[in-house]
Amino acid sequence: MSAMWPLFWPGVGFMAAVLVALLLRSALKRALGRHVRGRDGLAAVLQAVRGPSLLWVVVLGLYVAIEVASETERLGRRLSQQLALVLEVAIILSVTLTVAGLVGSLVRHASERRALGGPISGLGQAVARGVVFVVGGLVLLSALGVQITPLLTALGVGGLAVALALQDTLSNLFAGLHLLVDRPIRVGDYVKIADTVEGHVVDVGWRSTRVRTLQNTVAVVPNKKVAESIITNYDLPEPRLALLLRVGVAYASDPDRVERILVDEATRAAGEVPGLLAAPAPTARLIPGFGEYALDFTLAVHVASFVDQYPVQHELRKRLLRRLRAEGIEIPVPVRTIEHRPPRDA
Predict the structure, then answer these.
(1) What is the dihedral of CA 135, 141, 143, 148, to 10 degrees?
(2) 263-302 burial string, b = 16+ CB within 10 Å, else e?
(3) What is the pLDDT of residue 73?
(4) Which of 40, 56, 87, 199 is least surrounded by CB atoms within 10 angstroms?
């Protein structure tokens, strides 16, 4: 019992410091929660430090316990060193977890605001956090007296065996890193991969890329296949897309008049049809030209994004049909004449 007596006052100091720190943490959490919006940068910071703040409480308690023990001068030197080592480890862990949480939250918040040029994939956020964890782990091993150089050598030999066993997984991982750095696709882009998968990029992960199709299904494509495929990105260099509408009119129609009508109707629709842009201005050309039964015009307009072309086509075709009918311009249909002759008498 007498051997445990020197730990009494340090233990009391530890418990008192932890209790005060927890009360202070709870009070700050309530106070800041009333003044912070749900999705601003400060909210992201508070969310990131919520978990690591519990480690700060433990660090404060350990610090107070060691200070109390040093004042009593009855705690053994060896035990004091052990407590100091525990405090150092707790500080390293708390700083590492806090910085990793802050980096991940800030990258995610900047991605949502497109402050980094566009959304950041889950792989990008994981890499940012992983770098912090690696640095923190090396500092922790050094504090514990572990020699890092032999450990890295052992990991290199073991890593070779792991690499041989996980070739497909690693190839997808490095392909994901390539996509992250080169950025042929970004989260939110509308893409077509290998002429088979088409939709909005949801995420680029460690192993696969997720694409949400227009049918609201998610296609999961291995990163290696994405990196090796021909990718059509409809949002690069910008989301704006040229839309070509083919309009056939009767050969008796005046080409100049038809051109003016098509351009005028498309220009009027630009201010009324969502997704249809007024600039660049619409144009109409007699291309591909002379069809089998009609003059074929191509009306060129621009839409805000790839998916806007479908409602724009729907509305614009209805407007053109009503306008051409009102102007008395015929839209011909193919007519085939069949001549029936009776058989000759033998």
Answers:
(1) -90
(2) bebbeebbeebebbbeeeebebeeeeeeeeebbbbbbbbb
(3) 53
(4) 40
- pLDDT number for residue 115: 41
Q: For the chain, how many structural domains are there in total? A: 3
CA–CA separation, 294 and 313 (whole Å): 21
Residue 29 and residue 139 in one domain: yes
Distance CA(83)–CA(74), nearest Å, equals: 14
**Which residues of the chain register pLDDT less than 70?**
1-11, 13, 31-52, 66-84, 105-125, 127, 146-170, 345-346
Beta carbons of 307 and 190 less than 8 angstroms apart: yes
How far are the Cα atoms of 62, 68, 271 from residue 15, in angstroms, in the given order? 9, 12, 69
Q: Which of 187, 204, 233 is the last residue of a domain?
A: 233
State whether 132 and 23 are in the same domain: yes
Q: Which residues contact 165 (CB under 8 A, 6 or more apart)?
A: none
Is-contact 6 69, C-beta < 8 A? yes
Q: What is the pLDDT of residue 117?
A: 45
- pLDDT at position 265 is 92
- Whether residue 252 is found in the same domain as residue 220: no
Q: What is the pLDDT of residue 337?
A: 72
Kindly write down the DSSP assignment for every residue of 236-296, as one continuous string: SS-S-EEEEEEEEE-TTS-HHHHHHHHHHHHHHHTTTSTTEESSSPPEEEEEEEE-SSSEE
Nearest to 199 by CA among 244, 231, 177, 242: 231
Q: Are residues 226 and 315 in the same domain?
A: no
Where in the sequence is the domain holding 271, given as residue range(s)? 241-326
- Report whether 13 contacts 65 (CB < 8 A): yes
Final residue in a domain of this structure, among 211, 233, 255: 233
Q: What number of other Cβ atoms are within 10 A of residue 195's Cβ? A: 9
- Residue 255's CATH number: 3.30.70.100
Same domain assignment for residues 256 and 292: yes
